[in-house]
Amino acid sequence: GNSVTQMEGPVTLSEEAFLTINCTYTATGYPSLFWYVQYPGEGLQLLLKATKADDKGSNKGFEATYRKETTSFHLEKGSVQVSDSAVYFCALSGLLYNQGGKLIFGQGTELSVKP
Amino acid sequence: SAVISQKPSRDICQRGTSLTIQCQVDSQVTMMFWYRQQPGQSLTLIATANQGSEATYESGFVIDKFPISRPNLTFSTLTVSNMSPEDSSIYLCSVSLGNTIYFGEGSWLTVV
User: Fold this and answer.
1) What is the maximum alpha-carbon separation in chain A?
2) Which of B10, B17, B25, B109 has its CA 20 to 30 A from that of A44?
3) Listed residue (A41, A78, A24) closest to B90, CA to CA
4) Residue B101: what pLDDT?
């Protein structure tokens, strides 16, 4: 079945460090891929998405490229800030029409950025 | 885009009671989804709610415990029945619009 695997956290970085959070997936066909962010005490926000192979999603300095050959969608940011401290979830969408809104989530990676 | 409103945003509930969570969307959508996020965990899909038909539940979730209503294309409710402390979670409503999936702010339930 479809699944998403993220690198385990917590990840602790100093401000302005480079961030990579690894995400790999297992799916048949070509799902859409998403990164969501959950700040402390808040709900889930869409950070970025990619709907086909080689697409790059970007937002707020974060980027992720849909790599079909390696079934990956790693999240990167060149210089993190304390305000980026949150839990990050990688997710893929269902592949059939009636599953198009169903998301399969990775386990989440907690990021803590220190000043 | 879609704006999703959930009520209540937070609640503390007594064990053995039931609570109904409401989800209102500002656009008409065919399917609405309910997720659960237990403390420190990822999100798990509870069920898919289509207007005019019975909800479809994922493995491990049953209608008696999580009855769902979907009376129209912009509204749905999820009831958490006979609550126990293990039901303490964030419950999130979600919709798909275009090729983007939107979430409500979540309903944070604590069962004591």
Assistant:
1) 45
2) B17
3) A41
4) 85
Question: What is the share, in percent, of chain B residues with pLDDT greater than 90?
Answer: 80
The tokens describing B102, both together, are 């939107």
Burial B4-25 (b: 16+ CB within 10 A, else e): bebeeeeeebeeeeebebbbeb
Cβ–Cβ under 8 Å, residues B63 and B55: yes
Size of interface A-B (CB pairs under 8 A): 53
Give the type of residue at B102: Y
- Judged by CB atoms closer than 8 Å, whether chains meet at A44 and B45 is answered as no
| CA-wise closest residue to A41 among B72, B53, B1, B108 | B108
Per-residue pLDDT reduced to its tens digit, A43-97: 889 999 998 899 999 999 999 999 999 999 999 999 999 999 999 999 998 655 4
Residue B78, burial from CB neighbour count under 10 angstroms (0-12, 13-18, 19+): buried
Q: Which two tokens stand for residue A27?
A: 């799916």
pLDDT > 60? residue A98:
no
In sequence order, what DSSP letters do the residues of B40-88 get, joined into one string?
T--EEEEEEEETTS--EEPTT--TTTS-EEEEETTEEEEEE-S--GGG-
Taking the Cβ of residue A77 and every Cβ of chain B, the question of whether any pair is shorter than 8 Å is answered with no
Q: Chain A contacts of B61, Cβ < 8 Å?
A: none
Q: For all residues of chain B together, what is the average pLDDT?
A: 94
